[in-house]
Amino acid sequence: MPQTIVQVQNLNLSYKSVKAVQNVSFSVTPGEILAVIGQNGSGKTSTVECIEGLRKPDSGSIEVFGKDPWLHRQEVYKEMGVQLQEAEYPPKIKVEEQCRLFASFYDRPANWELLLKQLGLEEKRKRPVHKLSGGEKQRLSILLSLMGRPKLLVLDELTTGLDPEVRQNMWAGFGNIKENGVAIIMVSHYLDEVETLADKILYLEKGKQKFLGTKQGFREYVKSQVPQEEWEENLPLERLYLMIAPKTTGLTMEGIM
Amino acid sequence: MNQFMVISNMELRLYVRNFFSFFFTLVFPLLMLLLFGGIYGNTPIYEGADSKMMDICVPAYSVMVTGVTGLMSLPLTLSDYKEKKIYKRFDATPVGKINIMLAQVFVNFIMTLIGISILLAAGKLLYNIQINGTFLSVCISLLFSIAAMFSMGFLFTAIGQDVRSTNLLCYLFYFIMLFLSGATIPDMLFPETMKKIADILPMTHAVDLMQGIFAGDALGMHSKELLILGMTTAICTATGAVLYSKKDWT
């Protein structure tokens, strides 16, 4: 039985009167990738920010490496790397300075010079971070999440802003990282990414946990939720997700013309 | 400690790259010294007086430097990092935002000392200013002045909801104190009403303390100023810390 790295039980979080996360429970073991999916505002980022120790839950328990991340944040971060949905860096800091600074935070930092090359940022090392493109910033953010040679990675929208080739490279890279026993929690809107990488899926809807299980389990869950005549076998994950996700109003010309 | 020095080194580089902070900490006070020195020289402040113009201007400009770092540079850095969620990114590391903030305080402290050292060196070389106080009493006075200005800046950052409102508070208090404390315009020129207003400003007491100590007064002669600056530090730091603990950092 593999040791559990993250254990979340009955997590609840509210913003004033809005219940952002309601009774969410799951666990993650070494070498496992859990994908958190759901619409905008479904509580994905709030959930992972509780795991990251950046938000204090109203109730429920979270253990990361056996410790409460809210109370023992700095200890937990020795073995956890995160890529935030939006990350800003000190004004006028250069790429290599940012890397060197983050490397100083860890006893045994990753070889960031090699990572710069692998992520295609070698030529940008002298460039101020604020002058990087969105995709380059995202790659830097990924690099920094790996700086501490983490055993747990929390990636909030891993490949947003990246071009298709880089996305494919990222998938291969994170596949390797997982093979080396690193547990990964990833928040994603890209269901092709989830299909490729994830072992387990946590599906949230308006803060509530609607599904937790394998990709096959998710297929069966969707099948149980939709009318039989609408069901088709072997649909990609994205089509399955669209079958059950709450419908949003479409954009029409009515408001524009 | 090594990690703290790496962070401080980086913050120092960023400080120097910020033209505004660099100019107002290191260059502007020197320009003031050269300007007023050029006009008055180090002559007696009035006929027959023991005090000379530059002997009282240099300690006053030293307080001006503490005002720049404490009320402009440090609080604006703190509020900018908070608003842009840069602290949040540091919170997602083993270091956490507190260590970054401490490094920022340290760097501003070092820049204050450098700014004052430049003033003292220029004052000595160009106008042969006299520092009659002991080294220890000068250091203690300086520490009390720096602590009071930094803690006020910290409080304004805690009160301000964003960079703009923090900016407003800091600039407002900085310029009011700059002109009324005697840091730029000798307070002997003020009418009584303005002197009364000036008397409630912490910077006025910092200027009085520094000028007195530079003139050779013992620290005991300035217990009132030390008490006011000490209380300013304690109240602003404690209030700021309480307000900070209630802020949303995410």
Structure write-up:
The complex is a heterodimer of chains A (257) and B (250). By secondary structure, chain A is an alpha/beta fold. Chain A folds into two domains: 180 residues, Rossmann fold (3-Layer(aba) Sandwich); 61 residues, no CATH class. In chain A, strands 5-6-7-3-8-9 form a six-stranded mixed beta sheet, sandwiched between helices. In chain A, helix 8 packs parallel to helix 9. The longest helix of chain A has 16 residues. Chain A is globular and about 55 Å long. Chain A starts with 5 loop residues before the first strand and ends in a 13-residue tail after the last helix. The mean pLDDT of chain A is 93. Chain B has 250 residues and is mostly helical. Chain B has one domain. In chain B, helix 3 packs across helix 9 and helix 6 packs antiparallel against helix 9. Chain B is globular, with a radius of gyration of 18 Å. The interface between A and B is medium-sized, with 28 and 25 residues.
